[in-house]
Each structure stands twice: as structure tokens, then as C-alpha cells.
Model the fold of this input.
Amino acid sequence: MADLRNIVILTGAGISAESGIDTFRSEGGLWEQHRVEDVATPEGFARDPDLVLRFYDMRREAIQTKLPNPAHEALARLDAEWDGELLIVTQNVDDLHERAGAKRVLHMHGTHLNAWCTACDVRTPWTGPLIDRPPCPCCGESALRPDVVWFGEMPYEMERIYAAIRRADLFVSIGTSGAVYPAAGFVRDARNLGVQTLELNLERSEGSHRFHETRLGRASELVPAWVGQVLS
Ligand code: OAD
Ligand code: ZN
Done:
């Protein structure tokens, strides 16, 4: 990997699975227990805000009891030691990359630990519940919602992500099923630009055939091994 300088990493729920956070599409995963239309769409929120707020309150509380695992730690080490460009684009709404120490992280699907005021459009760090309709610290309106991107909404910072992919030498996808666009399309975008592509996942994802290389296994083993290889 002599000419490797700029790296874009996409992470999904699989990287946090070994920290005890449920994935979405596995057996017993979140989307088996809850209907996406009910808890992860603007229409669901309009129909039954209590159900949606309670769902995210539970998730927000749960992630704060979880800890980063060796996969998050390895990426944090890569972030600290890599002097080329690096962007960790995560679909995850937990903060385990940051708690492991990573800095160059972009949350394309938002974060559980923010509340977003639909009255004044300000985002505030938030660790408690939203079910009681607390006032926005900025404008005082009771109009806070989870700062999580729902189906039918535009993921955050797409321009910055595509700019990073255009400059990348390597695109690595970790722990994601490749079921949700636009993230699932990054591998094709990268390949069209001549970027090398690598998948690290427990099982083959939907777009697995698009990657130059796929390594199958647990993130807690695959990611530290790959980071060790890149840094050596
Ligand atoms: P999924 O639940 O769809 O996929 C998780 C992937 O991780 C699967 O391919 C698993 O095989 C893999 N996996 C599970 N355990 C693993 C482990 N220990 N090591 C490595 N891989 C493992 O989750 P995402 O692809 O992240 O969006 O889902 C994408 C988006 O769909 C989420 O961001 C969320 C969801 O709806 C929104 O909420 C907008
Ligand atoms: Zn406000």
C-alpha cells in the first residue's frame, strides 16, 4: 500500500454490535421489533410522537451504558496516527467512535446525543429524555426531536462525504448491510472514481460483489488487524 494516502471509512451498526448495541437487520434486530414506518419516518412521528420519542429515549439511555470495543479503538488509533486524509463516515447514531478517541468522524444519520429544535433549528447536546417535551434551551419552545435522520430525510453533509471519496485512495466499509442508500452507493461511487475498495463485515453485504476485497469476521478482530497492516 505504498501510494495509500487518503482513506474514507464507512461504518454501520455491525461495528457497535460487540458493544451490545442491537443492529437493525439481523435476526431479532431493531427492525424486527419495531416497524420502520412507525419509529423512523417523519410521518410516524407526526402520527404518534409519544411512541417515537419513547423509542429514542430508550435507545439514548441504552447507548450511554455501552462502551467502545476494539474495532472503535483501532479506528481511533488510525485517526491519531494517520497523517494522510481520513474521514470516518458513520451511519451510527451512537458516540462510540468519539468515546474511543476518534476525531475525524462524520455522523451522516445524526446522533442520539443531540436534540434538534424544529422551532429555531438549533441542535443541543442532549443525554436525557424528550418524552416530557422539555423546552429548547435556545428558544424555549417545546419542539425538540431526536437529531436522527429518518427515512425520507436527507442524510447530513453529503457534499463533504463525496468530496472525501473523490480524493480517496481507499474506501473501507465496516459492519454495514448495504441496504440503505445513499451510503450503500458509496462503494460504486468510489469504484467509478478508481478508488480501491475493501469490505470488513460478518457476512457478505448486499453490495459485496462491488468491492475489490471482502474480509469476513467480527469487527473486533478484522478492524484491529487491518489497522495494524495499514500502520505498519
Ligand atoms: P444493519 O443492521 O442493516 O447491518 C449490520 C451489518 O453488520 C450486517 O451486515 C451484519 O452482518 C454486520 N455485523 C453484525 N455483527 C457484526 C460484527 N460483530 N462484526 C462485523 N459485522 C457485523 O445496519 P446498518 O447497515 O448500519 O438508518 O444499517 C444502515 C441504516 O439502516 C442505519 O443507519 C439505520 C437503519 O435503518 C437510519 O436510522 C436512518
Ligand atoms: Zn429552539
Q: What stands out?
A: The radius of gyration is 18 Å. Residues 117, 119-120, 122, 136, 138-139, 141 surround zinc ion (ligand 2) (CB under 6 Å). Strands lie at 7-11, 86-90, 105-107, 110-117, 123-125, 144-148, 170-174, 196-201, 213-216. The mean pLDDT is 96.
